[in-house]
Write a structure and sequence with these properties.
It is a single chain. 11% of the residues lie in helices and 31% in strands. By secondary structure, it is mainly beta. It has two domains: 71 residues, no CATH class; 35 residues, no CATH class. It has a three-stranded antiparallel sheet with strand order 5-6-7, with no helix packed on it. A two-stranded antiparallel ribbon has the order 1-2. It has a two-stranded antiparallel sheet with strand order 3-4. The longest helix is centred in the first third of the chain and has 8 residues. It is elongated, with a radius of gyration of 20 Å.
Length: 125
């Protein structure tokens, strides 16, 4: 598109601006699909808009992507192909943590991680 029309370079900015109100309405919470049918709420810090493909003669060929980047999450446990996570950077403590269970795939990917050696807490009854 840019080679055919130099003004197309500003298209990403203009379209991104138009979806800004939608992004703002999410109040930094993204709803992730879940196999149970109940969406998972997860806070995000950054959103990035990208035009994947555009066609001025066939609207069906237009495609865009919005990438949401969360803050740190703590991996609490791996259950089969699912990850039990807690939003935030938690050490092993006895405070209550809200958790979510996700399956990495098309909608969710891990782009970085930091390994920590957290001692296990023994509970004596």
């Amino acid at each position: 598109m840019k080679s055919n029309n130099p003004k197309a370079n500003s298209l990403r900015y203009k379209v991104g601006f138009s979806i800004g109100l939608y992004i703002r309405s999410l109040q930094n919470q993204i709803r992730l699909p879940h196999e149970t049918g109940v969406a998972i709420q997860l806070p995000f810090e950054i959103s990035e808009f990208e035009i994947i493909q555009s066609n001025i003669t066939d609207k069906k060929l237009n495609s865009v992507a919005i990438t949401y980047t969360t803050g740190a999450c703590t991996l609490l446990q791996i259950i089969g192909e699912y990850l039990l996570l807690s939003a935030g950077d938690h050490n092993n403590n006895e405070e209550w943590q809200d958790t979510l269970i996700v399956k990495p795939g098309k909608a969710i990917s891990i782009v970085g991680y930091q390994e920590k050696n957290i001692p296990l807490v023994a509970v004596n009854d």
